[in-house]
Amino acid sequence: MLVSPIRLLILASLGYILYRLLFGRGQGRTNSGPSQAEGKRQVDDVLVEDPVCHLYIPQREAESLIISGTTHYFCSPECRKKFQSEKRS
Ligand SMILES: [Zn+2]
Q: Fewer Cβ neighbours under 10 Å: the N or C end of the chain?
């Protein structure tokens, strides 16, 4: 008994449809990734003011200090130390 070429073709296309159904959806999910990455990049570009020397620095490069839920940003660890000692006195 011989297998006809048409039957092989149908089997192959069925396999292809099954493959697309199983793995095609997974690719659709990953497409939502780049939009999230763009949102993150905008946050990195935010400029923050140093309350000690009043310089503006990019948030990602700034030294941060959280006091009672508020985040303060500084241009250097020196400014952060100065701010901390002023707060205590
Ligand atoms: Zn500073």
A: N
What are the residue ranges spanned by the domains of the chain? 1-31, 43-89
Beta carbons within 10 angstroms of residue 72's beta carbon = 20
Could you give the CA distance from residue 19 to residue 62 in angstroms, rounded to a whole number? 49
pLDDT one-digit tens code per residue, 9-41: 999 999 999 999 988 865 555 555 555 555 555
How far is ligand 1, taken at its centre, from the CA of residue 8, in Å? 73
pTM beyond 0.85, yes or no: no
CB 57, CB 63: distance < 8 Å: no
Q: How far is the CA of 66 from the centre of ligand 1 (A)?
A: 16
pLDDT tens sequence across 59-86 = 999 999 999 999 999 999 999 999 999 8
